[in-house]
Design goal:
about 160 residues, mainly alpha, 7 helices
Amino acid sequence: MSKALTTFALVAVLTALLMALSLAVARHGYPYGAIGVKRLDGIADAGSFLPLAAVYFFSALLMMILPIRAASIVLTNAADALFWATIALFATIVGCLVARWAFGQGGVLWALVNWRFLFVAAIVAAHLTMNELRRNVLLRSLFFVVFAAATLACLFWSFAV
């Protein structure tokens, strides 16, 4: 948990600094600043967590039914990478929004209230409790169904507002 928070904070600060640099350059009238802002804003979308969540929940589903050795391969080669990608992507979004807020765009922080960020919380919660889920046979069976439903929902449901 500590490593995840440290990673989140560092990526958010680095992104905020890059966004602040891009906003400052754009404010002075240089077109390169707008290019930097556009590139950072391109990944700052809550909808980008849907495919990540689908793949993560599918790997979690596999970890619930596979034997321990095969489940450890899925954990180390898929679930861990998706977890860290989720942390980095969310930190990037937060860093972009904080930099915009610091440059006087006060209402931009309301973008963090988007309900699609619940997928970030679901991925983090699932990843941090994976050991406990694997130990208990009842929880493993229950979360097999939960992860199957979450995978199918993230993959096929539109989640249109």
